[in-house]
Write a structure and sequence with these properties.
The chain has 6 helices and 15 strands. By secondary structure, it is of the alpha+beta class. The strands form 2 sheets. A 12-stranded antiparallel barrel has the order 1-2-3-4-5-6-10-11-12-13-14-15. It has a two-stranded antiparallel sheet with strand order 8-9. β10 and β11 form a beta hairpin. It is globular, with a radius of gyration of 22 Å.
Length: 387
């Protein structure tokens, strides 16, 4: 029997990605309706606690294809985020209050409200970094350094984030200097083609993302609830603990000269003493930070230990990607973008006292038409401190 050709495999890959996105977008609305209905029926029982409300969190994200043994495409990302305690009783007046009140999705009376501040950098390179003049059919060198402001509203079942990013693409992003420094420290190949990177261009993105704790269930002999975890007493150590599972779908959109897309996906987790939050995140502009949701979270209630496994997917319908399409207002190198892209991830999480560490291994489908490989891979590490 003949083996399938490369073109046949690409066709199957494209068909699979389109199917994933069509299914995901079609179930997003029903999930939203179900989650909102549950919220209306159970809002009086909200378990968002006083300690969780007053707990700020700091999260560091590091993503690199070194975890996959490669050095190409999306090659490195870093993001540092601080998320404030609850700002429901924020006392600011004037234009600052009017600005916050004007933001969509964020005004549910029973919810916790948080302000987030982010700094980050991402870099992209072609497949062969040893070529002084990169292959014009490969993605161009590019860097993106940015500052972000996010506004988060969450309760037991739903979280909305509205995010604004401002930054710079091009030499002023200092991505070239960052990569060369890291390669010097790790004694790696010195990348040669940064003279052909995208030109300097100010960047701005406006994004929104919604997540639901759509399915959350303890695995024990006592009362089970599809709406929230109910911890039980572990007689071996007399601590409140549980084995549990949850499923956290999301939908979102981003608009800007750096990127424009609509996305949807999910994360599923299973483990011991699962954190009460909205799951594991990659460096995605409007993704919800993994801050404690309620006082049952092991980082808040002093249980001090959690371990879990997870898997997830995110599909994007992409209308604009400056790192592939090239500069907006000047000529630059570019490639033909694939409008359908998906990320598939799996990994583990560990909580010790106030700290959480997660690792995700990510497989990304083809991003541009002349990409030689049908996928690319990278690893993502997050470390957070609730203080």
């Amino acid at each position: 029997m003949n083996s399938p050709s490369r073109s046949d495999l690409f066709s199957l890959s494209n068909l699979y990605r389109r199917g994933l996105l069509c299914i995901a977008f079609s179930w997003g609305a029903p999930v939203a309706g179900l989650a909102d209905d549950r919220l209306e029926r159970t809002s009086e029982d909200s378990i968002v606690g006083a300690v969780a409300r007053e707990t700020p969190i700091m999260i560091a994200y590091v993503e690199n294809d070194l975890f996959a043994g490669t050095d190409r495409h999306y090659t490195n990302g870093f993001k540092l985020t601080w998320m404030s305690p609850d700002m429901t009783d924020w006392t600011q007046d004037g234009w600052r209050r009017q600005f916050i009140d004007a933001l969509p999705f964020l005004h549910r009376g029973e919810a916790v409200r948080n302000l987030g501040i982010t700094v980050g950098q991402q870099m992209y390179t072609p497949r062969d970094v040893e070529r002084p003049d990169p292959d014009p059919n490969d993605r161009p060198y590019a860097g993106w350094t940015h500052l972000g402001f996010s506004f988060l509203t969450k309760n037991d079942f739903r979280a909305d984030t509205v995010m604004l990013q401002i930054g710079i693409v091009g030499p002023a992003s200092l991505a070239e200097e960052t990569q060369k420094l890291v390669h010097e420290i790790t004694d790696s190949i010195d990348p040669q083609g940064w003279d052909y990177q995208l030109s300097n261009e100010p960047g701005i993105n406006l994004g929104w993302e919604r997540k639901w704790r759509w399915y959350a269930r303890t695995i024990s002999d006592d009362d089970r609830s599809p709406q929230r975890f109910r911890p039980f007493v572990d007689k071996r150590d007399q601590m409140r603990a549980y084995w549990g599972v949850d499923v956290i779908p999301h939908v979102g959109a981003l608009v800007g000269n750096v990127a424009t897309y609509a996305n949807t996906g999910f994360t599923a987790r299973a483990g011991y003493n699962l954190p009460s939050d909205f799951g594991v995140n990659l460096i995605r502009p409007a993704s919800v930070t993994s801050a404690p949701l309620d006082d049952l979270d092991p980082r808040v209630r002093g249980a001090g230990f959690s371990f879990y496994l997870f898997a997830g997917a995110d599909g994007r319908a992409v209308a604009r990607d400056i790192f592939l399409d090239g500069n907006t207002f000047t000529d630059s190198r570019s490639v033909d973008r694939d409008p359908w892209v998906a990320d598939f991830s799996a990994g583990f999480g560990l909580v010790l006292a106030d700290f959480q560490l997660t690792y995700s291994h990510v497989v990304r489908t083809r991003e541009f038409e002349t990409q030689q490989s049908s996928t690319s891979e990278f690893g993502s590490v997050t470390a957070s401190w609730s203080f």
